[in-house]
Amino acid sequence: MSQAEVPSRRTVLRGALAAGALTAAPGAAHAAESRAPYRNPLVEQRADPHITRHTDGRYYFTASVPEYDRIILRSSRTLGGLSTAAETVIWTRHTTGDMAAHIWAPELHRIGGKWYIYFAAAPADDIWKIRIWVLENQDSDPLRGSWTERGQLTTAWDTFSLDAHTFTHRGDRYLVWAQHEPGLDNNTGLFLSRMAGPLTLTGPQIRLSTPEYDWERVGFKVNEGAAVIKRNGRVFMTYSASATDANYCMGLLTADARSDLMDPASWAKSPEPVFVSSEETGQYGPGHNSFTVAEDGRTDVLVYHARPYRDITGDPLHDPNRHTRVQRFGWRPDGTPDFGVPVRS
User: Are strands 148-152 and 131-137 parallel, antiparallel or unpaired?
Assistant: First the structure.
């Protein structure tokens, strides 16, 4: 794939960055303070965070590191404990060939009695030829045992693709990911497929969303980093949009839990972002989220990254200070999520 097809994120951001255009309304921060019983940032300089709570009650954490060269894991009995938990490097990039650059956005999932990590990587000689790759571990503890490279997860097109997220619904396993669709004037849209197993897609691969609103197209035309939570008879899919600076924000897709998720018409897209930068709390570019629950097993927790400042020198991808943050969130009377604003540090 040529750089003409997918503009490199290393290029100068196109157009005005609309400083201040996507910020939470003044006063919103006060209502959000009660959502923040955790230390923030939870883990510094860890972007694209993914936290899963296993059936044994332990939390497992992984994320992108600023060097984009390795995959790390932490584990703790409590969410707050992830801040000081030992960090283990479970895999390191290749020095040549495939999986040698841009090791991005790992996600850890337990499937069929094994652990899997889905992540993005590029070859050493073509660092923007980013694709989805998979690691597997048969040990009951992902911090032990050995991680085996299971190869590239193949999608319908051999184009820029990343941010794989898997979930189950009504007995079927699905994968949602971000990819550049040939012929479209964007960087990435969101695509959905059923899975035949943890390593294989099956059946049609449908487009769920493409950047269409102005707030999804600032700097780059991006939909990426999807995450799914099911509540109140609906399937909610968050995603992130625009460049990875202060304009980065979260959007939302919603489907009825009884509907056919593989029918694009089942999904409704919110016309406004649902989680944005906040001048009042001093947190910018919130996004690439995941979901977990608090120690009580019931309270929903939003996991995301953000920076504690707006202005960035150079390419935002080279600025290391996207920090992992967590905060509780609630639900509106109509059953939709209320993420509030990024809480203060």
Answer: antiparallel
pLDDT value at residue 27: 52
- What is the amino acid identity at position 300? D
- Residue 117 tokens read as 């990590």
Q: Say if residues 114 and 108 touch (Cβ distance below 8 Å).
A: no
Show the CA angle centred on residue 17, arms to residues 20 and 312, nearest 5°: 85
User: 52-84, pLDDT tens digit by residue?
Assistant: 999 999 999 999 999 999 999 999 999 999 999
Residues serving a catalytic function are 48, 224
Location of structure tokens 């996991």: 303
At residue 345 the predicted structure's pLDDT band, cuts being 50, 70 and 90, is confident
Q: Would you list the DSSP string of 86-133?
A: --EEEEE--SSSSS-EEEEEEEEEEETTEEEEEEEEE-TT-TT--EEE
pLDDT of 8-55, one tens digit each?
Answer: 433 323 333 343 446 665 555 544 444 557 999 999 999 999 999 999
- Name all domains of the chain by residue range, CATH numbers in brackets: 28-338 (2.115.10.20)
Contact 211, 217 (CB under 8 A): yes
Cα separation of 292 and 140, whole Å?
20
Instruction: State residue 35's pLDDT score.
Output: 53
pLDDT at site 22: 65
How far is Cα of residue 65 from the mean position of the Cα atoms in its chain?
14
Residue 9: predicted pLDDT: 39
286 contacts: CB under 8 Å, gap ≥ 6: 248, 249, 250, 275, 276, 277, 304, 305, 306, 325, 342
pTM attached to this predicted model: 0.91
Q: Tell the residue number behind the tokens 């009884």, with chain if given.
A: 258
Contact assessment for residue 53 and residue 29, using Cβ atoms and an 8 Å cutoff: no
Q: Using alpha carbons only, how large is the chain's radius of gyration in Å?
A: 19
d(CA 249, CA 276): 5
Q: What is the mean pLDDT of residues 129-148?
A: 97
Query: How far, CA to CA in Å, does 112 sit from each of 50, 106, 136, 139, 167?
Result: 20, 19, 11, 12, 13
